[in-house]
Write a structure and sequence with these properties.
The model has no long low-confidence stretch (mean pLDDT about 100). β5, α6 and β6 form a beta-alpha-beta unit. Strands 1-2-3-4-5-6-7-8 form an eight-stranded parallel β-barrel, surrounded by six helices. It has eleven helices and eight strands. Helices cover about 50% and strands about 15% of the residues. The structure holds SN-glycerol-3-phosphate (G3P). SN-glycerol-3-phosphate binds next to α7.
Length: about 220
C-alpha cells in the first residue's frame, strides 16, 4: 500500500519524507488556503520535496476553464497529478487529460457508481472520502470494499486512493481490503509508528543493557 500525506505544509512533508514512508502528496483548496502561499509556488515547492505523485486541484467548475488551469498546473513538474471534482465537467476534464497522458485524481467520491464513472474516464486515482461518510452515519470502508470489487471485476487500472482518513484503523481496514493508496494527515501517519508495548519493551531492554555497562561502539 502506498502512503500519501494529505497536507500543504512543506515542513511536515520534508519531515515525513525523511522516514521513507511518503510515496506522494495530496492537497486540496482548503489545505492550500491554510498554507497561505501562492498556489503555483506551493505546488512547485512540494514537487521539489516529493518525487511521487503530487495532487493539485483545479478550482474552476467548468470544463474549459478546468483545462486551462490544468495546463498551468501540469507544467510545474512531471509528478503533478491534476485533481478534479467528481462532476460531469470534472470527468470530461479527466478524460481529456488522461487521453493526453496526464495523471488525474478524481476527488469527492462518495458512491461506487461515481467511482465507476471515474475509472471509465481514465482516472489514475479515485479519491473516496471515508471519514466524511462516517461523519454522516454511513460506513466509509464499505465504499472502499465496493469500489475495489468493481475495479477488480473489470480490471480497471485506476488506483483507489482512500481519502479523508481520520485514524490508523482507517489505514489498516483499507489495507485489508487491498486499496492501493491511503492519504492521511501527517499526525495519522505518525500515529502508525506508535504502540505503547513498543515503548515499554524498549525501555526494559535499555534498562537491562545499561546494567551491563557495555557499549557496542
Ligand atoms: O484531501 C481530501 C481529503 O483527504 C479531506 O479529508 O479530513 O477534510 O475530510 P477531510
Amino acid at each position: 500500500m502506498k502512503f500519501f500525506v494529505d497536507t500543504a505544509d512543506i515542513k511536515e512533508i520534508k519531515d515525513l519524507a525523511a522516514t521513507g514512508m511518503v510515496d506522494g502528496v495530496t492537497t486540496n483548496p482548503s489545505l492550500a488556503a491554510k498554507s497561505g502561499k501562492k498556489f503555483v509556488e506551493l505546488i512547485t515547492e512540494i514537487c521539489a520535496v516529493c518525487p511521487g505523485p503530487v495532487s493539485a486541484e483545479v478550482t474552476a467548475l467548468d470544463h474549459a476553464t478546468m483545462m486551462k488551469e490544468a495546463e498551468v498546473l501540469r507544467k510545474i513538474a512531471k509528478n503533478v497529478t491534476i485533481k478534479v471534482p467528481l462532476t460531469p465537467d470534472g470527468l470530461k476534464t479527466c478524460k481529456a487529460l488522461s487521453d493526453d497522458g496526464t495523471m488525474v485524481n478524481v476527488t469527492l467520491c462518495f458512491s461506487p457508481a461515481q467511482a465507476l464513472l471515474a475509472a471509465k474516464a481514465g482516472a489514475a486515482f479515485i479519491s473516496p472520502f471515508v471519514g466524511r461518510l462516517d461523519d454522516v452515519g454511513q460506513d466509509g470502508m464499505e465504499l472502499i470494499d465496493d469500489i475495489c470489487t468493481i475495479y477488480r471485476n473489470y480490471g480497471f487500472a485506476t488506483e483507489v486512493l482512500v481519502a479523508s482518513i481520520r485514524h490508523p484503523m482507517h489505514v489498516v481496514e483499507a489495507a485489508k481490503i487491498g486499496a492501493h493508496v491511503a492519504t492521511m494527515p501527517p499526525a495519522t501517519l505518525r500515529q502508525l509508528f506508535n504502540h505503547p508495548l513498543t515503548d515499554k519493551g524498549l525501555k526494559a531492554f535499555m534498562d537491562d543493557w545499561a546494567k551491563t555497562g557495555q557499549s557496542i561502539l
